[in-house]
Structure formats: structure tokens, C-alpha cells
Amino acid sequence: MPPPLLPTLFFFLLLTAAAQDSDPGPDCTGRWIHIRQLPPQFNLDLLSNCSEYPVSGDFCPFVGNHGLGQKTHNSSRSWYRTDPLMLELIFHRRMLEYPCLTPDPSLASAIYLPYYAGLDALRYLYGPDQNTSFLHGLDLFRFLTRTHRPEIWNRRQGHDHFLVMARPAWDFSQPLSNDPPIFGTSFLESPEFFNVTALTLESRAYPWQEQAIPYPTSFHPQNLGFLKSWIQRVRRTRRSSLMLFAGGGGISANPNIRRSIRLECDNVTSLSAEGSGFEKFCDFVDCSSGICEHDPIRFMRPMLRASFCLQPPGDTPTRRSTFDAMVAGCIPVFFEEQSAKKQYTWHMAEEEYGEWSVFIAKEDVVGKEGVRIMDVLMGIPRTEVRRMRERVVALIERVVYRKHGSSSGLRSKKDAFDIAVEGALQRINSRVHQILAHSLHSHV
User: Fold this and answer.
1) How far is 182 from 175, CA to CA, in rounded Å?
2) pLDDT digits over 82-135, tens only?
3) DSSP 3-state of 216
4) In what order do the strands lie in the sheet with 306-311?
5) Which 3 state secondary structure label does DSSP give 284?
């Protein structure tokens, strides 16, 4: 086991033992959660394999600070080199601080499974078990239903259980019928887990049990002062660029939205911005080969200077960059509704997207006669742009994951974690009530 992991693992073992005996908050009615005790093979042991999957990248540097990663610089109080795959660890650490934990599962409204599904999936995605991806999660299911207190699962047949899966749901959705198997595991296709609520970085459009929650950004404030200070900076920063694209791709000859964005950005950089209120119309941050993933300084400063941040889909519809942009107060521009509007409904109401973002259908942009993005954005009145930016700023506290052990003042603000837990409880309570009502009706 790499030495840097030892403090993290030791702390988890101590805190886990005491967490469910902590004093509750003022009102825990309908909010009690029991943390299912799992063997380390399902969570903490997986951290010790951080360098075993070179194809996916060594994640050892990002395990520190309980999943937040290393600080961007020694004096940083809020900025870390966070990897999205560590959301499972971040969430587990925060769950240990949840005020309404109970050691008695029969009293709980929900059961949290601290299973690091995304980390365990690496051996099926990039490791030695690629040809047996249909087995992903079955060891966990056997433990839950046979080995350790099966009555906890059997009480609701798993309907009251939830877990975090720090990858897009597509990575866990390979049909069981695939032969030979292709990329992805079959965890979410396994009937054994159909009843479990899965919090993923990106959900599919149809399964009821999946819910997308925000990608973790690099910003994790530890007190209310740091959050307010950052928001003040976001508000006062001069927006010298009309639009920005931070990303890679778009270099192939085949028509696609990223290629159209890069071509337009190249073309409009030669245009004079005099009289427009901007120093330039388009800014481009090349994040090819993942060079921006753990270096927020590369893209955060340009995002602070941009009025709009373009969010084209890539391998999947969603992007972490959406939340980086929001933290910078940069108005997102979407090209697919599945990029955000149909995803993060607990954190941003679907009917309110038009108040803080712009939508331009990718089909309207791609092609020789396509719409020019710059023209659409320049056509938005400046008063409307200012209003949209204020709405983005108001959402910052809802889409960031604050640092564990944060101040009481900051804990009074609901962050991405709080909203995710609240949403999981509401969905589980609703589902359980439906099942009980149906059961009662069938016996009448």
C-alpha cells in the first residue's frame, strides 16, 4: 500500500466506527440514514490499487485530502487538484458527518452503500477482468443478501439503498447479452441492483433508479468567508471575451459540433472587437490529452474573463467543464439538452435553465450554412446577460462540494452533497410509500 494512503485509511476506520453514534440534528424525521458496513474490499482497499491501471491513469495523487486531491499550491485554502473519480471517496467522507445517522437500520429511511463502484469498475474496464464485466457487483450483492445481515436488504428488497457511482451511467450499462463483451460493466443492467438508487455523474434518459449529480470541481471552500470571497471575485471580474471553449477534440475532418466551434473561434479571432465591449470574441483553451483535468489554473482564469462558456458534448453528453464554468460565473452554452437540462434536476430545476444558460441546437451550428454562435450570443441584450450571470452565481453554492469538516456557517448553505442526499431520501421515501400502498391495496 502506498504510504500517502495510510492517514486517509486510518482516519476512515476511526470515524466510521463512531459516525452512527453521533448526536442528531434538530429534526431527523424522515431523514435517518444507516451506513451499511462493508468489508474494505468494497471501498478502502480499492484505494491501494491506485497505480494498477496505467491505461486509465494513476490516481494515487488524487486520493489525498479524503478525495479532494493535492492543493493547487501550498497556501491554497479552497483549491485542489480534484479528480472526478474520487467523488465516491468525497461522498463517503461527507456521509460520515451527516447529522442524522443511525446505527439501527430498521429506523432508517435510507441505507447508504459506501461502495466505490467506479474504482472497482477499473479492473473490468482496463484491467484483467475485461471479459467478465457481467460479474461487476455480484460479490457485493452476495455480501448484502447472504453474508452479512441479509434482513437489512430483504426489508425493502434494496429499494431503500443508494450509492454513488463516479462515472457516467453508460460505463455501467453494458447489456448482459453482449458476447463478446465491449467497453463497460453490467452493474446497472443486473437485475440484482434494479431497485437501488444510483447517483451517477451522468444518467441515461430512461431508468428510474439513476440520477445525475454534479461533477466535483476543484473548488472546495472550508468556511463561509472563502465562499463569499470567491463569489465577490466572480462578480467583479471584467469579462473581456465574449465566449470561451476549454476542451479538446474537433480536429477531424468529419462535421461535428466541436469542429464547428474551433473553426468559428479561429475565424472570429481575426475580427475587430472594437465597439463590441469585448477585447476579443472567442478564447480557446486547448485541453487535449487531459492536460487540464487536474490543473484548474489553466482554465479557471480564462473562464473568469469570459462572458459565455461553450459546453459541447464529447464522448458523452455531459462535461465537468459545465460546473467549472459555473464556479467562474461564466454562462454555459449548451448544444444538447442531455448535456445538463435532462440530467441534474435535483440541483438545477429543468424549467429554469433558460434563466441562466443558452441553448443552441448542435444541428443548427454544424454545416456550411450553420448558425454562427457569436451572432446568437451578441444578440442577447447586455441587461439580460447580467441577469443570467447573477443566476449562475446564485447556483455556485449548490453545485460545489464543500470541504469536509467545514465551518458551521458554511454548513448552513446546502451544497451539492446536501442536495444529493436530500434528493435520494425523497426518491426512496416516495418509492417505498408506493410499494407499501400497492402491497396494502393487493391485500384488501
Assistant:
1) 9
2) 999 999 999 999 999 999 999 999 999 999 999 999 999 999 998 888 888 999
3) coil
4) 280-286, 241-247, 306-311, 331-334, 358-359
5) strand
* Cell numbers 431508468: residue: 207
Grid cell at residue 343: 440530467
Q: Kindly calculate the radius of gyration of the chain based on its CA atoms and give it in whole angstroms.
A: 23
Q: What angle do CA 424, 231, 85 make, to 5 degrees?
A: 45
Q: Nearest-CA neighbor of 243 among 292, 279, 291, 296? A: 279
Place of cell 499550491: 73
> Could you tell me the three cell numbers for 178?
453482449
pTM of this structure: 0.93
Query: Within its chain, how far is the Cα of 89 from the centroid?
Result: 12
> Three-state DSSP class for 97?
coil
For residues 253-279, one letter each, b for 16 or more C-beta atoms within 10 angstroms of the residue's C-beta and e for the rest, the string is: eeebbbbbbbebbeebeeeebeeeebe
User: Coil, strand or helix: which one is 33?
Assistant: strand
* SS3 state of residue 165: strand
Closest among 291, 337, 300, 303 to 318, alpha carbons compared: 337
* pLDDT, tens digit (0-9, with 9 covering 90-100), for 123-153: 999 888 888 899 999 999 999 999 989 999 9
